[in-house]
Design a protein that fits this description.
The protein has 174 residues and is mainly α. It contains seven helices and no strands. Helix 2 runs antiparallel to helix 4, helix 2 packs antiparallel against helix 6 and helix 4 packs antiparallel against helix 5. This is Regulator of CtrA degradation.
């Protein structure tokens, strides 16, 4: 019977998330994220402002709350995208970026879609909120994969005292 290798050294594994982040897929994710930010800013500063003035008190409060949440969410997502672009460009290491990413709150979800005033909000605002949650979900997924790979690399590069002792014992009896 042949030997079965369980080589899990970092150089023997395929870092799918890292490859994904350095591919055209990341470029498209980045463009999509920045386009959503630009579209949201344009809407909130223009048509959204006049539409919000026509709302009743409950819907007006919901508009103010949701537009603030939307803006905050998009700024967090933009920070994540810009950090990852810096990693891809070789400006910083993935481990350095991860330390900064830990300060970014992409995991926070504050949906108010079930609130009574949700249907009274302008359709465009509801669309932008939904798109921001879709982008957030995609980024959270990729970020989770990157964190897992970073943990695997760290574990693989960390000395294992038990394995070292076993190697020494094996070497002593050869």
């Amino acid at each position: 019977m042949g030997e079965f290798s369980t080589d899990t050294k970092p150089e023997a594994t395929c870092n799918f998330a890292k490859r994904l982040m350095s591919s055209q897929n990341f470029t498209e994710l980045f463009r999509e994220g920045m386009a959503l930010i630009e579209e949201t800013a344009s809407y909130l500063a223009g048509p959204g402002r006049s539409q919000s003035k026509a709302l009743g008190p409950a819907a007006s409060l919901a508009y103010a709350t949701e537009s603030m949440r939307l803006t905050t969410r998009l700024m967090q997502l933009a920070s994540w995208l810009l950090l990852q672009r810096a990693v891809n460009g070789g400006e910083i290491l993935q481990s350095e970026a991860q330390n900064e990413k830990n300060k970014i709150r992409i995991d926070k979800s504050s949906k108010e879609i079930g609130s009574p005033a949700w249907q009274d909000l302008p359709e465009k605002l509801r669309f932008l909120i939904s798109e921001s949650f879709r982008l957030q979900k995609r980024i959270k997924h990729v970020d989770s994969m990157l964190k897992q790979e970073l943990l695997r690399e760290t574990a693989a590069n960390t000395p294992n005292p038990v394995a070292d002792q076993l190697s020494q014992i094996t070497a002593a009896f050869k």
